[in-house]
Design goal:
Blueprint lengths: L3 E5 L4 H6 L7 E6 L8 E4 L11 H10 L2 E4 L10 H22 L2 E5 L21 H18 L3 E6 L1 E3 L12 H10 L5 E2 L6 E2 L1 E3 H13 L5 E5 L6 E2 H14 L8 E2 L2 H12 L5 H14 L23 H19 L10
Parallel strand pairs: 1-2, 1-4, 2-3, 4-5, 5-6, 6-11, 7-10, 8-13
Antiparallel strand pairs: 9-12
Helix pairs in contact: 2-3, 3-4, 7-10
Length: about 350
């Protein structure tokens, strides 16, 4: 059944992968600045009442839209509490108001890391990255969706990586910064244990899942779009990064994987104060990001419960991550090529 869909975040990692999968529907992209190519757009602002639209445009849009897919979010851990809450919470509230006026279903893309409140670092030192603001905003937005009574789904992806076949991605985010530091040999140690799980989901797998809940009109569900028990270990992730660098002709050295407690107890007190301010800040930001992964148990994984979707398998995930790092190396112009393993 063809539907009219209002899509937010169309130019982001999730939205860009999702947009072609909704081609059989009429998709209207609500955008503030970044405009996706070859798409029907409406200029607005999620943080303003009425989505920043004039009353006539708002009414017409509400008459036409059957489904709202909400992918837009601030994912920058350094953005600060107020800007993060403004888009992630207030923006979701505005969309829920619109969905109610339109009589539309709403599918909200949240984050699997809402389950990791106990893993966030309370002390970020000189760092600027504080995942607590982001996670608090996602939990609050989820609660708004649940309390609204509007039919639809909450989808919780883990760390999104590039396309399974090509490795391509719209934007290099946090995990890629760590991978880049390893490739460039600026990360001598990584505060993770070798067997810590690093849960990744290829962008096409996530986009297929979102498209499926739209296609099958899934309602009243909360789904974990994750690898779960099939997640790669930190040791394997590092191996794949080093291997991709080797294939590109780069002299990549694996960082030492160190228990985070040892880093806090020994490395920070003894060495951190002697580092230049910029290096110290980057190190603290890395600690804040990896704290969400270190020692964590596996996420729930419910992909198989979505019609037409299958669980993520470890070998397939390893190949997808390999291609993602290959794409990073190629896009940055490092080494001979960004070629990755088949």
């Amino acid at each position: 059944m063809k539907r009219t869909i209002l899509l937010t975040g169309a130019s982001g990692v999730v939205g860009a992968a999702l947009l072609p999968r909704l081609a059989r529907h009429r998709v209207i992209c609500l955008v503030h600045r970044n405009k996706p190519e070859a798409a029907e757009i409406v200029l607005g602002d999620l943080t303003i009442p009425g989505l920043g639209l004039d009353s006539c445009t708002y009414r017409n849009l509400a008459r036409e839209v059957d489904v709202v897919v909400h992918c837009a979010a601030t994912t920058d851990f350094s953005a600060g509490a107020d800007p993060t809450r403004e888009l992630n919470v207030t923006g979701t509230a505005r969309l829920l108001e619109f969905a109610a006026d339109a009589g539309a279903t709403l599918h909200y893309v949240s984050s699997a890391f809402v389950a990791r409140s106990e893993a966030s670092r309370a002390d970020i030192g000189d760092g600027t990255a504080d995942p607590r603001d982001y996670l608090a905003s996602k939990r609050a937005a989820e609660q708004l969706v649940r309390d609204s009574g509007i039919p639809g789904t909450i989808l919780r992806p883990s760390v999104v990586i590039g396309d399974s076949a090509t490795g391509a991605i719209a934007k290099f985010q946090a995990l890629y910064l760590l991978a880049a530091a390893i490739v460039r040999k600026t990360l001598p140690l990584l505060p993770l244990r070798p067997d810590d799980r690093v849960d990744l989901v290829p962008q096409d797998v996530l986009a297929d899942a979102v498209a499926a809940v739209v296609k099958h009109d899934v309602r009243g569900a909360e789904h974990w779009i994750t690898a779960g028990e099939a997640a790669l270990t930190a040791g394997r992730v590092v191996e794949l990064i080093v291997a991709a660098g080797d294939r590109a002709g780069l002299d990549v050295r694996a960082p030492r994987l160190v228990d985070p407690e040892m880093v806090d107890r020994l490395v920070r007190p003894a060495f951190l104060e002697h580092l230049p301010p910029v290096t110290r800040r980057r190190f603290e930001d890395m600690l804040a990001m990896t704290a969400l992964v270190a020692g964590a148990t596996a996420f729930p994984a419910t992909l198989a419960e979505i019609p037409g979707c299958r669980p993520i398998e470890t070998p397939v995930l390893a190949c997808a991550f390999d291609r993602s790092i290959g794409h990073l190396i190629g896009a940055m112009g490092w080494g001979r090529s960004g070629e990755s393993a088949a």
